[in-house]
Structures are given as structure tokens and as C-alpha cells.
Amino acid sequence: MSLSPVLDISIDPELHPCIPAALLRLGYLYPELDFLVSDKGVAVHGASGSDLARLKREVTYQVYREKVFRQTLSMRQSLYAMLAG
């Protein structure tokens, strides 16, 4: 893989805590690429032959998906407890 990122995606600092879980998911969706946390958000290595616009959309989608998961976790846990109780 190349040393410098092919794509460095800016992510809102408010969403930075969601990045590690999103990168884990992206790693199995795109095993040919390396995803790393960067100062701006996410650095993608090995993407030179990829559709960069699609890849950027996928990265931002996965980070936002993790944000929604975290925001709704307590609500889902309460619902499951109520249904199981």
C-alpha cells in the first residue's frame, strides 16, 4: 500500500468518537483498502483504482450509521427489556 493517503476525508469533530467502529466495518467491506484515523477524520490508502466519490460517500455513511446506532442504543435496550420482562 502507498505511504500517503489517496483520500483524506474530513469528518465533523463531533463524529470522531464514531470513527473506530465505522473503520472496523469498512475494513471487511473493502479488504483491499486500508482505513486509518487521521487528524481530519479518515485516511484511505490503496484507493487509487477506486471510485473516490463513492468511497467518500461510503465512509461518511458508515460514520453516520455508527452515530445513529449510539444515539438509539439506550432506547433499543429499554424496548428489549420491556419486551423480555
UniProtKB/TrEMBL annotation:
Protein name, entry field: Uncharacterized protein
